[in-house]
Design a protein that fits this description.
Oligomer: single chain
Helix content: 55-70%
Number of helices: 4
Largest sheet: 2 strands, antiparallel
Length: 81
């Protein structure tokens, strides 16, 4: 999760790098053995896309946190109101 946040921070700083990194991640596949067969998953691409999504919603998350002073205190308490 920490690596995903670091990648998102880098993509926030250099948003034009996203398509380049996504294309570079395309040829890499991770073989996963499941039920006697092997699946080649695009895990690096999934991480790049996840970092891109996180970088895109980051400003909205920061704005929500600034508007709500109880953001860090008790999330269950907010739902009970």
């Amino acid at each position: 999760m920490g690596g995903l946040c670091v990648a998102a921070a880098l993509l926030r700083r250099w948003p034009d790098a996203f398509p380049v990194v996504a294309v570079l991640a395309l040829p890499f596949r991770i073989p996963i053995a499941v039920g006697g067969s092997t699946a080649n998953l695009l895990v690096p691409l999934y991480l790049v896309v996840g970092a891109g999504v996180l970088a895109h919603i980051w400003p909205a998350l920061v704005a929500m946190r600034r508007r709500d002073p109880e953001w860090d205190e008790d999330p269950a308490g907010r739902a009970a109101r």
